[in-house]
Specification:
CATH class of the largest domain: Alpha Beta
Strand content: 15-25%
Number of domains: 2
CATH superfamily of the largest domain: Metal-dependent hydrolases
Structural class: alpha/beta
CATH architecture of the largest domain: Alpha-Beta Barrel
Number of helices: 15
Oligomer: single chain
């Protein structure tokens, strides 16, 4: 089926040949086409051009985009969208003065979510997660990564990943899955970290790979969680089984995890609220994507990733939501893009590049998502009638999306 968009005020992120990612000063360049049309053939972009030379042929559907902008659907490379229940009480605890780490020490945080998830059936977990996924699709997300990590037992971790795979089969969105068994130490292993690492490496990783449930391996490399040495062991074991490394790193402390990630050819290092000169130097000349999660900084009132510093150092940057029940209970990429501009001082061009083409790279989806390029996925956002694309982050509290098309399907 051919679907044609016409009279597009401005078509954003148009790239005849799409790079894998964009770095440094180039992130401030957003190629656009004014008074444009865009043609989808089934699930792919077939062609585009200006209304001076409209396409010929028969089209199953034509959408008039007069006054509207069209851009690639958001690529959210870091979420924990498969979880059970919520943690609003911890939100209140933080208002009353407890820190994230204090809440974790008294049985809250990740361990709280793990307990709820272990007690939730796979069907109920699927239903809760599907509702969240549907919400973010209508907010313009067209590719998303989903992590485990709230199970912390072999059975519960596998349950999370099976749910993510079922979501991928039902919904018209690209879903990548990540095994994050090393998210926290379960209560029963509180004084036996080596025992839990053995369980992750010797039992969980082989099972995950045997059932083809994950593309990536991830670790929470942080004081009080997993050390650099722990991280390197898990990443090494995952790589033996073909899992691509990612790391949660530098959220509260800089302990050398960024350098370890680069050493293990991690596809991305995520959080980076704290960043040292050594971290920046390690990232230079690497293929590792720094990923900022401004929704987490907003919700926890912790520092924002120094995105301006990262880009000015000539590096790339991606943006993601970190959608999870404890530290970022929102999957709204529009808010993430706005917050990156408002709090991290990114330009609208940089933020859109970070949330599309660089986000796609951080999921291994550079060939299929993140730009308006022939042959890529027919997944786009059609805005309301707005004056400029700078209005998207400016009007941070408004929903400026008129329609979302994912894999050629109008939602």
């Amino acid at each position: 089926m051919k679907l044609l968009l016409i009279n597009i005020k401005e078509l954003l992120q148009v790239r005849e040949i799409s790079p894998r990612y964009i770095s440094g000063k180039e992130m401030n360049i957003l190629p656009t086409l004014s008074n444009a049309w865009l043609l989808f053939n089934g699930t792919q972009i077939e062609d585009y051009g200006t209304m001076n030379l409209p396409p010929d042929g028969n089209f199953a559907q034509i959408i008039d985009c007069t006054g509207r902008f069209v851009l690639p659907a958001w690529c959210d490379s870091h979420t924990h969208i498969v979880y059970a229940g919520n943690r609003e009480q911890e939100f209140v605890d933080r208002i009353n003065g407890l820190t994230y780490l204090e809440i974790a020490e008294k049985g809250g945080g990740i361990l709280n979510s793990a307990k709820k998830l272990q007690e939730t059936s796979e069907k109920e977990l699927y239903d809760q997660s599907a509702a969240r996924l549907e919400e973010v699709l209508y907010l313009g997300t067209g590719a998303i990564e989903i992590k485990s990590g709230y199970g912390l037992t072999p059975e519960a971790e596998m349950k999370m990943l099976r749910v993510a795979k079922k979501l991928a089969k039902k919904y018209p969105v690209a879903i990548k899955t990540t095994f994050l068994g090393a998210h926290a130490l379960p209560t029963e292993f509180k004084n036996n970290k080596k025992g839990y690492l053995d369980l992750v490496c010797n039992e969980m990783i082989p099972k995950v790979v045997q059932e083809d449930l994950a593309h990536f391996i991830d670790v929470f490399c942080e004081e009080g969680y997993f050390s650099v040495e722990d991280t390197e062991r898990i990443l090494s074991e995952g790589k033996k089984f073909g899992l691509i490394p990612k790391i949660h790193v530098n959220q509260f402390n800089a302990i050398g995890g960024v350098e370890a990630g680069v050493r293990h050819q991690a596809l991305s290092v995520d959080h980076l609220e704290l960043l040292t000169d050594e971290d920046l130097n390690a990232l230079k000349n690497s293929e590792t994507m720094p990923v900022a999660l401004p929704g987490c900084s907003y919700f926890l009132s912790i520092p924002y990733t120094p995105g301006r510093r990262i880009i000015d150092a000539g590096l790339p940057l991606a943006l993601a939501t970190d959608f999870n029940p404890g530290s970022s209970p929102s999957g709204n990429m529009n808010f993430v893009v706005a917050t990156a501009c408002i709090k991290m001082k990114l330009t609208p061009e940089e933020a859109i590049n970070a949330a599309t083409i660089n986000g796609a790279y951080a999921m291994g989806l550079s060939d299929s998502h993140g730009s308006i390029t022939k042959g890529k996925a027919a997944s786009v956002i059609i805005t309301e009638e707005i004056p400029s694309y700078g209005y998207l982050p400016y009007a941070f509290g408004s929903n400026c999306i008129d329609q979302v098309i994912l894999n050629g399907r109008v939602l």
